[in-house]
Each structure stands twice: as C-alpha cells, then as structure tokens.
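Exercise 3.2. Students should predict the tertiary structure of the chain below and write it as structure tokens, then compare their answer with the key that follows.

Predict this chain's 3D structure.
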Amino acid sequence: MNRDEAKQILLLYRPGRPDSDDPQMTDALALVGQDAELRVWFEQYLAQQSALRIKFQQVMPPPGLREQIVSEHRAAVRARSTRQLLVMAVLAGVFLLAAGVWWVPRHVRSEDDLAIYRNRMVRVALTGYAMDLATNDMGQIRTYLAQRQAPSDYVLPAGLQTATVTGCAVETWLDRKVTMVCFRTGQPLAPGAQNDLWLFVVERSALKHPLDPKAPELARVRRLATATWADGQRIYLLGVAGNEQMLRQYLASS
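Answer key:
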C-alpha cells in the first residue's frame, strides 16, 4: 500500500468506530505511524473532522423554523403536492451542505482549537504509539527533544516527581512539534498499556484558546482526566488514567 492509497482509505476513518475488522484500514493506520508526511496529512484531516462535529453540535436553528417546517409539511400533505415536498427536501439538503462547507476549516484556529487538540493528544496516548526514546533519564529526554526541535525547556509540576518517567516521543499538531513525555504512576496498567500518565507540551502560538496559568482547565476525555495550562511560551496538557483527585496530585507545584 502506498501513501495515496492509504489516504483514500483513511478518508473513511471515523474516530470511535471499530476498524479492527477492516484489514485495509489497519494497514493504512500502520502506514501513518511509518510515514511522516502521511501522518501530518492524517492529523490535519482528523482536526478538520473534529472541528466539523463540534460546529454541527453548536448549530442552533432559527426561531420558528420548526413551526414553519411543520406548517409547510401539513400544507403539502393536504394539497398532496409532491413537488412541494421535493422542494423542502432540496432546501434542507442545500442548508446542510452549505453549513458543512462553511465550517470545515483549512487550518483549525478558533475557540474550539483546545478541545480538538486535547482530543487528538488523548487519542495518541490511548490508541497506541511508539516511544522515540525509552529511558528513565529526564536529561537524556530533554537532549533528544532539543535535537529534534521539539519543546525541551518545559517545567514539570513538582507532583510529577513522584511518577516514573519512561521515555518520550515527538508528535505533531498542524505542523507544530509536540513533546510527549511518558510516565507511570505505579498503579496497575491496563492490558496492552505502556504508561498511564502523559505530559504534552507545544508552543503557545499553536493554540488561540485563552488559558490561565494559575488555574489549569480540567476536562474528562475518554478514560483520561486531563488538565491544560499555559506557562510562558508553552502550553501543557497532562493526562492520567485515573480520576480528578489523582490528576491534582500530579499538578501540585510544591
């Protein structure tokens, strides 16, 4: 399978839907992990799909639209006018199509970019990854990241010192490099899991969403409790396979 073939298959990919029974999808996803250019394309595609879903969830119909549709439908039924029903269906289709075209961004840069970024990084943590460097030496990790122009000057909360670092990887988000530092909490790992605590770091300009450095934004994303905050020129995302109480333990500053 080459890159173009993989792209055609990945256009059918939808997060949260099982793909293990589709050998072509399995091969295409495997190629994403091997091909850097394909990986960037796939991340942008996922970001666009996430933005579209969020926008559709936020769409509110104009006041009176329901009553208007019901009224016109009843009139059409009484008149037994197939033509009127067809016109309504066409107009509804045009509305949805226009909304879809309007809300698909070329690059995600909106108040929703944090939610999309957070979901993307949690997906990386939970659906499998290969650490670029496996080590319990934080100094080696910082050196490795710096050599690859990924954020390496991050400041760890004091609470993370109780966790065991296991390695790191360099991810991407809309062509920006994202540092992923992997930890273990000491709790039993889920079957097939390598770690249960992750820290993601990206440059501040990658997201427009405002963040308070003194009050991390907490969110539950799939099986992870997450906290996101800004510090200087960096944005931090910490996720743990646990509850909010456990998360706050690792967020402790002293």
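Discussion points: The chain has eight helices and seven strands. Confidence is low (pLDDT under 50) at residues 96-110.
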